[in-house]
Amino acid sequence: MQSIAELLGLLPGYSSIPETYRALIPVVVSCVVIFACMALAVLFAVWLERKVSAHIQDRLGPMYVGGWHGWAQTLADAVKLLLKEDIVPASADKLLFKVAPFVVFLGAFAAFVVIPFGASSFVADLNIGLLYVFAVGSLSVIGIIMAGWASNNKYSLYGGMRAAAQIISYEIPSAIAIMTVVIPVGSLSLVEIVNAQQGGIQNWFIFRYPPLVFLGFIIYFIASLAEVNRTPFDIPEAESELVAGYHTEYSGMRFAFFFLAEYANMFLVASVATALFLGGWTWFVPESVVPQFIPGPVLFFGKVLALVFVQMWLRWSLPRLRVDQLMYLSWKVLLPASLALVLGVGWVTVYW
Amino acid sequence: MDNNLLAQIVFYSFAVLTVGSAAVVVFSKSLIRSAFALLFTFFGVAALYAFLGADFLAAAQMVIYVGGILVLLLFGVMLTHKLYDLNLRSETFQFVPALVVAAAVFAVIVTFMLRTSWHTGPPASDAPTTAAIGELLMTDYILPFEAASILLLVAMIGAAMIVRRRSE
Amino acid sequence: MIGLGHFLVISAALFSLGIMCVLTRKNAVNVLMGVELILNSANINLVAFSKFSAGNMSGQIFAIFIIVIAAAEAAVALAIVLSMYRIIKSVDLDRADTLKG
Amino acid sequence: MNPQLLLDLQKFYPELALTAAFLCVIVADIAFPRIRKRLTFAIAALGLAVAFFLSLPLIGEPAGTIFSGSLALDEMAVFFKCFLIATSLLVLLAAPGSKELSQRHMGEFYMLLLGVTLSMLLLASSVDMLMLYLSLEMVSIGSYVMVGYLKNDRQSNEASLKYLLFGTVATGAMLYGITILYGLTGTTKIALLREALATNIATGENAAMLLIATALIVAGFGFKTAAVPFHFWCPDVYTGAPTPVTAFLSVAPKAAGFAILIRFFFTGFAESGSPGSWTAFSFIDWRLLIIVISVVTMTFGNIAALRQNNIKRLLAYSSIAHAGYILMGTVVLNSQGLQSVLIYLITYLFMNLGAFLIVIEIFNRTGSFDIDDYRGLSRRSPFLTIAMTIFMLSLMGIPPFAGFFGKLYVFGAAVNNDLAWFAVVGALNSVISVYYYARVIRAMIIEPGRETSLIPLPWTSHVMVWIMLLPTVGLMLFWNDIQQLTMSSLRLFLG
Question: What is the architecture of the domain spanning B1-115?
Answer without folding.
Answer: Up-down Bundle (1.20)
